[in-house]
Each structure stands twice: as C-alpha cells, then as structure tokens.
Amino acid sequence: MTENPSDDRTPGRPAPENGEPPSAPGPNTLSVHGGDDRARAHQAIPMPIIQTATYAFADTADLVHFMQRKTWGDGILGREEYGRYGNPTVQAVERKVTALEGAGDCVLFSSGMAAITSLLLASLPTGAHIVMTDDCYRRTRQFCLTFLKRLGIDTTIVSTGDYAALEDAIQPKRTRFIVSESPTNPYLRCVDLERIVEIARRRRVQTIIDSTFGTPINQQPLHYGVDYVVHSATKYLGGHHDLLAGVVAGRKDRIAALRDARGVLGGIVDPQNAYLLERGLKTLGLRVTQQNASGLAVAQFLEGHPAIERVWYPGLPSHPDHDIARRQMAGFGGVVSFEVRGNLEDTSRFIDALDIPYIAPSLGGVDSLIEQPALMSYFEKTSEERLALGIRDNLVRFAIGVEDTADLIADLAQALRVVTP
Asked: Taking the domains of the chain in order of start, what are their residue ranges?
C-alpha cells in the first residue's frame, strides 16, 4: 500500500514536530477564512454580489482622494472607479487565493485561458522566446505555437522531465519564461520545482507553473521560488462545474502590473461568478482531501486489475515522477489516467457501462467526470496523429469527485467486466 503524505502538512513545507503548534492556519481554516474582510458591507458572512459596472464619488474631493491613493499603490479596499478595474466581490476571491497560495497578491480572470494568455501577452515583447514542457494543456500550447508566433514570439517544446534539454533550449537574452504544469494533463507528470527554479534563476529567466491539478491544498509552487502560479479556477477552486474563472498569483509588484494589464485586455470575471468561486473555495480543503483519498484508492485498484494496461497517478510508485510528487505534494489529487486493455471501441464500451461519472470534459468538481481523450479533445485527429501527440485510443481520464470511494471502485469493477480478458 502506498503511503500518502499527511493531510495535516502544509503543502511545500515540512510537517511540524510532535507537540509543536502549526506555524500557519491549516488548509481548511484558510479555505474558509483566508483573506476575509470582517468589515465587509452589511456584515454579511458570504461576500455579497456587488453588481455594478461603475462607482460614484461623493464630490470632487472624494474623487481626488481616491485617485491619489490609487496612484500611490495604496488603493481603497472595496471600490474602484470602473468595473473593469476591480470589484469588491472579485477582490474577496483574490484575497482568499492569495492566502491559500502564500502569495504576495493574486488577480482573477474570466477563465483559465484568459489568465495564462493575459500573463504572456502582458509580459512578452516581440522577439522573445519561451520554453514549454510537452505535456502542457493543448490550448496553452496552441496559443503559444500559433497566436504568439504571429507576434514574433517563439516557443520551444521540450520533454517533461528532461531538465538537460530544458536548459539547452534557453536562448540567452531571448528566453523570458519556462512554462510548465505540475501535475500535467493527462499523464500527471510532476516537474521538480526546486530544479526548474534553480535552472531558471541561474539562466535569468522566470517560471510559470500551471498548478490547476495540484491545487494550493496539495502544493504551493511559490514556496519553491516559482514566479507565477496559474489556475483554471473553473476546476478545483470552484469545485461545482458551475463557473468559469482563472487566477494568477505571485509577487505583489508583478501582480499589480498584471492587474493593470487586465484592465486593458479586458478578461474580467463577472461578480456573480466571483461569488460562486468564493463559496466554492470555502470547501476546497474538504473536497481535495476526499479526492486525494479516492484518487489513491482508485489508482491502486486499477493498477491491480487485469483489464488495465497502465495507470498514471503520481501516488503510485510505478509513476515516473512518484519521488518528486512525494517530496513536494501533500496529496496526489483526484485525477487518475489509465489505459484500458483493448482498442478505441473496447474503451468506449467500458465508459458507457459506468453509472456514477458523467461523460464530460473538465475536472475538480464534486461530480465525477470521465472522458476518452481520443474522442473528447482529439476527435478530429486520426489514431496515428493522436499517437504522435502521446494520446492512445485506449486512454481514459477519470476526474474523481467527492462520492464515496467504495462506490466509485464498485462502479469501475462492474464496468470493467465488459472488457476483462
């Protein structure tokens, strides 16, 4: 049985010695109270939805006072002059994610893609270069290889885990970022954060880690020196499949510049979505703890089943990055990828035989979702084209929700009978 790191451990930090008080609030306390403003409007416990596009000033002196504070970088909490620049409901989410990530600040966007594209567009001049690992989200790769290319910005793709190739790909005076996910989608590869930061600092480039699969409950890349952490808040942070949002967290001055860029690029989130996101964040610690436990149990069950060829889960010793995951993660997450022993049609029959998960894209919510990437994300490609991208026809991605672990395993067991040799 694979040992799971303690759920009481702050991600990215060693566990406290027996008898010592924790050095910081635990993940559930931060999920509920992190970044809270107790003086919020009407003393409401949930942050109210402040549904406004513009803000009024009492008189000219009030306007001048606000603008002076804003110019000095000491803005007045809870207001702006126009909704594209800020909103109290949005700011409440930003404060909470800042606390959860141990960041200097955080900025909220309308989607995960808006977050990463805005960060890159705001940071990269024409002629710049970035290095990206090959298991990154396909839409992020597409943006870099097509849209950024049109702007004269080049991208070099290197194999995840090949740190020599990553360093060799850095071009002096041109490379601005190393971009990776950890864990990645769909193979849950984990990059060595200490090693990637050491390379980046020595070569004077910055780092971006998409930590959507990791969550701030399981890992905090900023503690390792990563410059920017990105999340698709649509996934674990929201947790209920009912909103779209994205966040970027990092050093306060860098995030302030990115917030200014958001006002130009326009990728703002609606205050109602921000309200839903804050509500989802309050149960993040509870949900991820359950998903960690189910993910490990499901992965162990699948690895021992005769109808399964291979399981990809960083909590298993068979995963190529298991040792890295154990060092830098407090839990291994709720996504399990695996390959069914059979072809495209056999895999589809297995998925259709399941009762609990919905066939749907996305992950991280309370409802379990399952997909066959060959038919969901890569439907337009041939088997040969998919294989060239590392996507086999029998690959399944299982995004586990908060259902009872025993029920999930029982459902998998009965569905696998249709393909058991």
From this structure: 27-281, 284-416
